[in-house]
Write a structure and sequence with these properties.
2 domains; AhpD-like
């Protein structure tokens, strides 16, 4: 286990990133993920900048962004991210009913993805006209 680096033990470079996290999120709390990533300040900065940009204001509502992140975290079996983004989604407005639907979708999509991959289902021509399909 990588020990978290607390603010008082951090380098000036890491403290500046912690300060940005606090200011952007409007909190004094720094998550353990950032504290562990602080062992590699370049990784910490790059990851924080990416999260700040992607999860910040945009076309999608914050609750939708958090539920998407939660769904991916469940599929990737990342316990830390499941806990973090469950809390984030709840804070953004996810209800128990919404969580249940997310779980239904995650379960169904994972099952169907495995079946389609196993059967090597050919992609329909009509879907090849959709953005990003090959």
């Amino acid at each position: 286990m990588t020990p978290p680096i607390e603010y008082e033990d951090a380098t000036a470079e890491v403290r500046a990133i912690y300060d940005d996290i606090r200011a952007t999120r409007g909190t004094d709390y720094i998550n353990n993920v950032w504290k562990c990533f602080a062992h590699n300040p370049k990784l910490l900065r790059r990851t924080w900048e990416s999260v700040k940009e992607v999860m910040g204001p945009g076309t999608l509502d914050p609750v939708v962004k958090e539920m998407i992140y939660l769904a991916v975290s469940i599929s990737n079996n990342c316990g830390y991210c499941i806990a973090s983004h469950s809390a984030g989604a709840q804070k953004a407005g996810m209800t128990d009913e919404m969580f249940g639907e997310v779980m239904d979708i995650v379960g169904m999509a994972n099952e169907n993805n495995k079946l389609v991959a196993g059967y090597r289902v050919p992609i329909d021509d009509v879907y090849l006209k959709v953005r990003g399909a090959d």
